[in-house]
Write a structure and sequence with these properties.
- The protein is α+β, with helices and mostly antiparallel strands.
- Helix content is 60%, strand content 12%.
- Strands 1-2-3-4-5 form a five-stranded antiparallel β-sheet.
- A hairpin with a 3-residue loop joins strand 2 and strand 3.
- Helix 6 packs antiparallel against helix 7.
- The longest helix has 56 residues.
- The N terminus is likely disordered.
């Protein structure tokens, strides 16, 4: 038995010693493990560099589409009904949402032109409404005018005219009673003309009163040729001369008007005038006399009254 054990020991190594790896095999294993780790790391890096951007891009595209689709839906919803003035708030809200989109998101809103058309329609409606309101203002102002109460110094019609002239052509067409404006202007102008005539008459009357008063104060007596009496001397004689000439023609009474002798005396705001000369149509019958009275009964104008005509 001892000899057999010894042989076994000399012929082969014990089992425990055969399981210990050699240095060469350990090195190979390390290399294999390193390569595996590198491959795994490389795969992870490739996944990070390739897959992650694709996922990110997809997520961004999905978000863009969702935000754009919301605006698309809002536009479609707004256009389901007719555009009215009440649509303004809704369209403004949609426009704000569209403006908040990015450039890429806006490109996805394919029906934005419909929103622009709706906005244009709204602006047209607003303009039409504004035109109606401005025209109605003029209509109401014209309707409220009391034609019979218009005066020469009225300014309301001129103010309405100024407001009417500021309207656009489209707005003027909506003023259905515009013809009243010209009618009222004509009434005011007539009142102004009437007032001007009255003022002119009042001025003339005052001037005549002053002339009568001044004449009585400055012309008290005259004796001389009729031809030397009158406006060519002064305005006072001219006033009396005008009154006499409006009442008679001296040629109807006297043959030679240039040889007529005139006598004028003032008594109590009245002139007594006498003409003496050769009678008309009968120069050989001797001198004749014509008596006249010149006064101012209304205080504004001299009036001549024919008196006696007799042979001297």
């Amino acid at each position: 038995m001892p000899a057999e054990e010894s042989t076994t020991a000399a012929g082969q190594a014990p089992e425990q010693e055969q399981s210990v790896p050699s240095p060469k095999s350990g090195k190979k294993l390390y290399i294999i493990l390193s390569v595996c780790i590198c491959v795994i790391a490389a795969g992870t890096a490739v996944g990070t560099l390739v897959i992650y951007p694709m996922v990110t891009q997809y997520m961004e595209q999905k978000e863009n589409e969702e935000k754009a689709q919301r605006v698309v839906n809002l536009i479609n919803s707004a256009l389901e009904n007719e555009i009215t003035l009440d649509s303004e708030d809704d369209l403004n809200d949609i426009q704000k949402e569209y403006n908040a989109l990015s450039a890429d998101q806006k490109k996805l809103v394919k029906n934005y032109d419909k929103l622009e058309e709706a906005a244009a329609s709204l602006e047209k409606l607003k303009k039409e409404e504004e035109d109606k309101e401005k025209a109605q203002e003029i209509i109401d102002r014209l309707d409220s005018v009391n034609k019979d109460a218009l005066a020469y110094d009225d300014t309301s019609i001129q103010e309405i005219r100024s407001a009417y002239d500021k309207l656009t052509d489209d707005q003027k067409k909506l003023v259905t009673n515009a013809d009243l404006l010209s009618e009222y202007e004509a009434v005011v102008q007539e009142k102004k003309d009437q007032k001007a005539r009255e003022d002119q008459q009042a001025q003339e009357e005052q001037a005549n009163r002053s002339l009568v008063s001044e004449t009585f104060a400055n012309l008290t007596y005259y004796e001389g040729l009729w031809d030397d009496f009158g406006a060519h001397v002064n305005k006072y004689q001219g006033a009396v001369e005008a009154a006499i000439k409006s009442a008679i023609r001296t040629s109807d009474y006297f043959d030679d008007p240039y040889s007529i002798v005139m006598f004028l005396t003032k008594q109590h705001e009245c002139y007594f005038v006498s003409f003496e000369g050769v009678p008309s149509g009968n120069p050989n019958s001797g001198a004749v006399r014509l008596d006249l009275v010149v006064n101012a009964p209304n205080g504004m104008n001299f009036v001549c009254t024919v008196g006696d005509y007799y042979q001297l």
